[in-house]
Amino acid sequence: MSTPSSTSSSRSASPDLQPESMQIFIKNLSGDSTYLYELSFHPQEQVPDQNPAIPITVPSNTTVSNLTHLLSLRTSTPTDSLRLVHAGRHLSPSSTLLSNNITRDSTVHVAATVRGGMPPRKRITCTLKDCKDKALPIVGDCGFCNKNFCGKHRLLEDHKCDGLESVSYPSCDYAVDEFGLESGRIEWWQMGLGDVISDIMAHDNTVG
After folding, report:
1. Cβ-contact 91, 64 below 8 angstroms
2. d(Cα 35, Cα 45) in Å, to the nearest integer?
3. Cβ 52 vs Cβ 25: under 8 Å
4. pLDDT tens across 58-98, in order?
5. Is-contact 107 31, C-beta < 8 A?
6. What is the CA radius of gyration of the chain?
7. Does 90 reside within a domain?
8. 146: phi > 0 → left, psi -120 to 50 → alpha, else beta; which?
């Protein structure tokens, strides 16, 4: 059973158990340093343009993840794009500042994640409904309907190309209407070839 004296002594000792606040400095790997004005105590204070250096005051037991989140809010940068570096070593998000020997007036560097290379190419699938096969490059492109098709549907009749209508031959009815024929058959001399054949025959007779 605890005595009143022991209870009072434990209460008086409790403030000593609170983590100590410390000021650290944030600096870009490029060499530009920026001060954060004690964000945990003055979150509304703005960073003056004339002084790019940023100190930040945090509890000594702050985790790297919490510090990264704090910097993300301050700089409007996604958390997954920020990497903290100290003494040339990338810091684990679950570790604390003290475990990484980051003490008062230490400098922590911020490295933005470099997203190199080309973005992943989107997989183009066959345009035909319910077909999930990959569209063939070049040979799978239909020039009549301007769509992309796989090997099974690349032919016009296989994908029932809606552009076939514009390139189809005139029907017999159309020919009858145009030439005034009773039959749908169009003779060669009615297609403008009569004059050509006549000229050839006349030339042969002249030569003979």
Report:
1. yes
2. 12
3. no
4. 998 999 999 888 888 877 778 888 888 888 888 999 999 98
5. no
6. 41
7. yes
8. left
